[in-house]
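Key idea: predict the complex, not the pieces.
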Amino acid sequence: MTRKEYIIKQKKMGRHIFGVFPAQYPREILWAMNVAPVEIWDPPLEITGANAHLQPYICSVVKLGLELILQGKCDDLDGFLFPHTCDSIQNLASIVNDYLGMEKPCYFFYHPKAPFRDSSRIFYMEHLKGLAALLKQQLGPLDFSKLNQCVEQGRQVTSLLRELYNMRASGEISASNVQFYRVIRQGEFLLPDDFIPLLEEFLTASKGRSVAGPAVILSGVLPNPPEILTLLDELGVRVADDDFLSCSRRLLVPFSQARDPFEAMAETYFAMPPCTTKGSSIDERLNYLFGKIEGSGARGVIFDMVKFCEPELFDVPQLVKELKERGLATLVIDSELNQGLSGQLNTRVEAFVEMIS
Amino acid sequence: MDYFAGIDVGSLSTDVVILNGGGEVCGYSIIETGANSTEASEDALENALAQAGIGRGDLVKIVATGYGRVSVPLADRKFTEISCHALGAYYLFPYTGTVIDIGGQDSKVIRVGEGGKVVDFTMNDKCAAGTGRFLEVMAAKLRVPLDEMGDLSLHAKGEVQISSVCTVFAESEVVSLVARNHPREEILRGLHRAIVSRVWSMVKSIGVNGEVTMTGGVAKNSGVVVLMEERLGKTIHIHSEPQIIGALGAALLARRAFG
Ligand SMILES: Nc1ncnc2c1ncn2[C@@H]1O[C@H](COP(=O)(O)OP(=O)(O)O)[C@@H](O)[C@H]1O
Ligand code: SF4
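Result:
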């Protein structure tokens, strides 16, 4: 079922559909309030109208998101949620909410940035509860036991994803890189009732040996252009793990044992792996990457950057330097989303693979 | 005797090298790629085979490289030009630690390790800034034959500054400099300086390691080479046919695959 068909089906079932911009947000609250959050990362569109509102040096996640709205493809949605991920998303939020004259409810979700203090936790809890209170005005009361159930479902999703990632890191997955991310990315719009069985099925079906070629780690915002995965499959390379904002960084969070669902969600946020959008230090990010490299036998890291993504690009030179100093191969490529791999990018990836083979 | 061929299909030239089992070059050819890469690879191969005095049946393995490597149906395997230039340069100059390859549509700086293996590399972006194509456009604008522009620039008494490495902007700068009667030699020197500065930033990002070898067509341009040597503070190794180094590396990989 395509994303669109799924949304139509959910709508028919009486669910509210929200367009959610990257990256981290309390999905459990939305699920519990009968909302199907549909994440907007890289819709396959040609950018025409969005350029009139945004400077040329804004990333294509934001440009494509705005384009989706301008082309009327969000007209059937019941609202938007803008997490405060970076300045560009913040800018987008204000364009959509203040300037476009949209009739749709827009919600904003702020997270504290590192270094975290005791007050950060208080701030986060307040914002979680504040968001729930605002949503209540549009969607009706929040059922506490439903929220507890949803937090539990969130744990199940994470646990299945973790199992898949572990299988892959230890070379025990027969699925290709393309297949792996196709399934993981379904979580951007499937509700847990549908995502959990899909993950379970995929787990069983893809138990097996990984390809024998060299292993790499991918880092960046999201696995785009998808052609990079196809190329790595063709070259017999195993993506052994990732450090993508859209994937491992926000999906593989350690469990919280907290009874209170808000506490559990807050703990989850603070336990998220290091991320540029949380303000994590380079040292934390490096340790996280080294953990992944050691755990998977990867020989190098490919930084698959979205052009003009300031938070990510800011860290890359330092990460590359440190990784190289420890004898690891690195490759940095940056491209606009959905623009495919140019001949030159293709050559860079192939040469990188030859280098580590 | 066994023979091996390396075919490098570049944006401007298609180059072929034939090696015998002992690793000696027994034939090579450089032709324009033109509009059809497959035809160019066949023609260049025929030329090189004729020079070597052997037939296609004598070839044991063929490796293709270069941006057109995918359109060489004859090839048994393909490798990127990065691996091939590194290996070719290392084979000719075994102390090579850094390769600067400036071809028609891209430039690369490669750090070479033991056995001619790539340790690190960088490559320019999509545009023609800092590539041979940039020099070709400027040569045409100044009506200077490509193979004379380097030497001419070395005779310049002064130098004009070209502020852009973007081919389009630099072209209009050149037009206005010509209109103001600046000597051609000085404009050429400025153009060579612009390309060297662009490539120099790539060299710096990789770091210079050991001896430096230049490959690709632009290594034939003495003006670029002299300025690059000035920047490096050391002499650069250049083979008499720098355009065939990628094909040589490919032929060496063909031989290695067989051995
Ligand atoms: N005789 C020459 N003198 C100076 N420069 C040359 C000469 N022949 C070729 N070049 C330069 O080399 C470039 C082509 O390099 P080449 O390595 O053949 O490119 P590619 O591998 O992309 O086909 C030309 O753009 C030109 O600038
Ligand atoms: S790609 Fe980077 S700049 Fe763009 S929205 Fe994501 S984090 Fe922000």
